[in-house]
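hey so u asked for the seq, here:
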Amino acid sequence: MKLSVKSKFIELYNSEPLIIHAPGRINLIGEHTDYNNGYVMPAAIHMGVQFAFATSHHTHSLIYSLKYDQFYTLDLNAPDKVENPAWANYFLGIVHQLNAKGLRLENFNCVFDGDLPTGAGLSSSAAMECGFIFGLNEMFQLGLTQFDMIHMAQWAEHNYAGVKCGIMDQFSSMMGKDNHAFMLDCRSLEYEYLPLDLGNYTLLLCDTNVKHSLASSEYNTRRNECQQGVTIISKKFPEVKTLRDVTPVMLTACQQDMPPVIYNRCRFVVEENNRVVEASRDLKKGDLASFGKKMFAAHDGLSKLYEVSCAELDYLVQLATASADILGARMIGGGFGGCTLNLIHQNSVGTFLESARAAYRTKFGIEMSSYIVKPGKGVSVVID
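ran it, structure tokens below
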């Protein structure tokens, strides 16, 4: 049986640790809108990353990854980026931020592990950043607010992990609430919790188990393409600062001024923002059928207009479309692999998975993984 982080910590350091759980997240709808200052609708999930912390009397801090069976010795005064191990950079970026704010840490020991599959689009990186900074804040009573920690975790992702993500992932991990999603305005950071009353339906992730090499480079390319669109539109409409400010009427007025690819990227984001607002109304009314239709529409836009899907993701959504027991499905995450999210009747999960796995294996020669996910709470101290 796999050791828990607490058991491993006690085995390594012979002391009782503080235990922190940091969740991953799903995004129900609103993909690639966050870095365009738009709307998203994420939910924290029960799967995540667990940390065990305690202070140390040594002259260095020691972090141990249970997953990789690997130690990293951390010098609090020199948290520079490293080539190896790559996972250390999530934590080094946080320590850099704490130092920059003049928040001095004592040396500590830490053990971490998680049950989030990497590369599945569930934001394991944000869970690592948020859990780590939350644990240090608790242990050393740094007085950071949740918003402070969210921004510092995002900074670490940008500058140490090298992914220019929006605010959604860190916000979701920090602010999640049991049995709720929330609509987040990525411009103002105003948010509203929405009841996720699924009745006889459940949230099923189907993992393609592929991660195409385009994922990182194309993510940053899409950001640049959106910015090109803003530059063109703002010449006609100076009030436009981001795609969040663009209406369908404005976009149509500028269509002739932009290359078709740039128009398609902008069109997807403008339409997706509207879908999130309408989907929030669906949840408030408990109209899962309408919500599911918007999930299918979102995937169609991600695949054809934003072009961040791939053959494996499109095929899994195609299988879902053919099932009367699935109300909606779409790719989630950055794209080019990872998971589809399916809103499926709970009695049909087994049957669908059996046929989908067989069909996927036949078409691609790859085994599909799957996870049932439940909406959970944000980063928290685990009490035994």
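The CA atoms of residues 112 and 148 lie 22 Å apart. The chain has two domains: 5-195+377-381, 201-373.
lmk if thats what u needed
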